[in-house]
Amino acid sequence: MLYDQCSLIGIMEVEDWASSLGGTSDSEVSLEDLNEDEFCYSSGDLPKLQFRKDTSKARWKDELGMAEMLEKKGRMWTTTGVVRSGNIYCSLEETLFLAEVGALHLLDDNDACISLEDIYKKVAEGKGGCCWESFEVYRHLKSLGYIVGRHGAPWTIKSDKSKVRGSTDSNGTIDEECEDKCFVTELFNNMQINEVRPVFDVYPPNSKFKKSSPGNPIFVICLTSAHPPSKPEIEDLERRCNGTPLKFCHVEHGRVSFFSFNRVELPLLP
After folding, report:
1. 98 in Cβ contact with 80 (< 8 Å)
2. At what angle do helices 92-100 and 132-143 cross, to 10 degrees?
C-alpha cells in the first residue's frame, strides 16, 4: 500500500460555499469588515499597522499565553476566539492577525498598548503554542475566508451550574473560572509544533456559524517539518482525526504550500 501525494501548492481556492450552504458567505475580517486598502498584504509580507474606526480591545494574559477580550466590535467574534466562563480568549495567532489588520488593540496589565513588534516577539518565543509557521498558515487561511480554530480546542464549554447552585458563596464560581482557564492553558500550551501533528480545524465560510454547534471541520491542517510525513505518521494522524480529511502544510520563506495523500493499492505482480 502506497500513498500518492497530491500537491496543492501556493494557493487554496475558496469554493462557493454560500450556494451549497444556503446562506451568504462569511469571510469575516478579511473581506467584509475591512476595506480593500486595509487588507493589502500577501503571505510573507510585513504588514503595516492599520487604523480603523471600530477597534476591539483585549488584554494579554501571559500566564495563559492568550488574550482576554475586553471590548468586542465587529462581527468577527462569532468565529474568533474560544468562550470560557462567558469570556472570549484569543490564541496568539488570532491576536496577531487581528492586530495586523487593525481590528484589535492589545493591552498589557497597565492598559498600555502592546506594539506589533512586541506581539511578533511573543510568536518568536513560541508563546501559547504558536510559532511563525503556524501563524503564516492561519493568516493564509483566514485571508481566503475560512473559519479556523485550534485543533482539539472546543469553541465553547458549557459551565456546570450544579457547582454553584443553591449557594451564595462566590468561591464556586471562582473555582469554576480557574478550572476553565487551566483547561485552556493546558490545551494551547500542549500544542507546541515540533513534529507532524494536527494544528488547525478548518471550516468553510458560513454566516450562520455557531460556536455552540460548529459541526465537523471540512479538513484538519497538519504542519510538517522539512521532511514529508511517513506512512505510519499519516495513519496515526488519520486515526486521531476520526476520518476528517487531512491536509498537510509546509511553510518556507513565507510561502505556504498545502498537499494531501491518497491511498493507492498496487496489484501484486506474478
Report:
1. yes
2. 60
Measuring CA to CA, how many Å separate 103 from each of 51, 58, 93? 8, 11, 14
**Rounded CA gap, 207 and 95, in Å?**
21
Interior angle at CA 131, CA 232 and CA 31, nearest 5: 105
CA separation, residue 102 to residues 32, 132, 148, 180, 205 (Å) = 14, 19, 19, 29, 21
Three-class DSSP category at 3: strand
CB 138 within 8 A of CB 148: yes
C-alpha–C-alpha distance, residues 226 and 84, integer Å: 36
Count of H-run helices and E-run strands, the chain: 7, 11
pLDDT tops 60 at residue 6: no
- Count of other CB atoms within 10 angstroms of residue 70: 15
Distance CA 185, CA 267 (A): 49
pTM of the model: 0.73
In the 8-state DSSP scheme, what is residue 266? P
Instruction: Kindly list the distances between the CA atom of residue 1 and the CA atoms of 54, 248, 263, 264, 269, in Å, as whole numbers in the listed order.
Output: 54, 20, 7, 6, 13
The predicted-structure confidence for 55-90, as pLDDT tens digits, reads as follows: 999 999 999 999 999 999 988 899 999 999 899 999
CA atoms of 142 and 205, how far apart (whole Å): 10
Cα–Cα distances in angstroms (integers) from residue 132 to residues 19, 59, 127, 168, 259, in the given order: 34, 21, 11, 46, 19
